[in-house]
Amino acid sequence: MKTDSDLDLTGDPNVVVWRERRLEAAGFAGSIAGALAADCSFDLHRLINLVESGCPPELAVRILAPLENESLPC
Description:
Layout: H1 13-26, H2 30-37, H3 44-52, H4 57-64
């Protein structure tokens, strides 16, 4: 029997849509939310936590940007 941790959601468009909606609800502009939603190298929860703590979305993205410029598709 598979558990939630056994599920491979990589490439699932529903995951990207869900991530984008969460980012937009937190205050990210649509274009930024769309790009971040498709890039799983960004930790969604940490981005949202920074913004909810008063950090501007653009700065939150810079703070949490991966050191290497490699994206990790969702």
